[in-house]
Design brief:
By secondary structure, the chain is α+β, with helices and mostly antiparallel strands. It contains 3 helices and 5 strands, in the order βααββαββ. Strands 1-2-3-5-4 form a 5-stranded antiparallel sheet, with helices on one face. Helix 1 packs antiparallel against helix 2 and helix 2 runs antiparallel to helix 3. The longest helix has 21 residues.
Length: 158
């Protein structure tokens, strides 16, 4: 990936002193990689000390987006990027699918397939998709809001 071509655009609107963290990983586009994506996400969000509810929602969203990339595209790899800035967590998953095809939200489904983006929509504060800048696939992203977690006993005075 070339400099400046991150999955998530540069964050120019951050106030001074706002913490911004980024973590990116790539996996083979195989069904077994979904579990790896969940594990890598959980480990990183635990290190960032996000609350359990936000981490659980993020792990589910990563699972759904990576699954969609594996099942619905002819990708050989999937790239996931987590970005925490201010009180927002952004998840972006890039596949190598055809740029003109995008994810579709299905209103309802009677079978056990087709509900992934409905879950993403319900759990995130915003989500969307766009073509990768270099026309190498699609990026599907979702955002979650989170508060600063209180850590009793570990707070330090200013």
């Amino acid at each position: 990936m070339a400099p400046g071509s991150a999955l998530i655009p540069r964050l120019a609107d951050l106030s001074p002193g706002t913490e911004a963290l980024r973590y990116c990983f790539a996996l083979l586009a195989h069904p077994e990689s979904v579990a790896g994506a969940r594990e890598l996400t959980r480990t990183r969000l635990d290190a960032w000390q996000l609350g359990r509810d936000v981490a659980d929602a993020a792990v589910l969203i990563v699972s759904e987006l990576v699954t969609n990339a594996v099942v619905h595209t002819a990708s050989t790899r999937v790239v996931c990027e987590l970005s925490r800035f201010g009180e927002r967590l952004r998840i972006a998953v890039q596949d190598q699918g055809h740029p003109s095809c995008g994810p579709r939200l299905r209103a309802s489904s009677d079978d056990e397939h087709g509900r992934g983006l409905v879950l993403v929509d319900a759990m995130s504060s915003a989500w969307g998709a766009h073509d990768a800048q270099d026309s190498s696939g699609r990026i599907v992203w979702a955002e979650l809001s989170h508060g600063v977690e209180q850590r009793s006993g570990t707070e330090r005075p200013c």
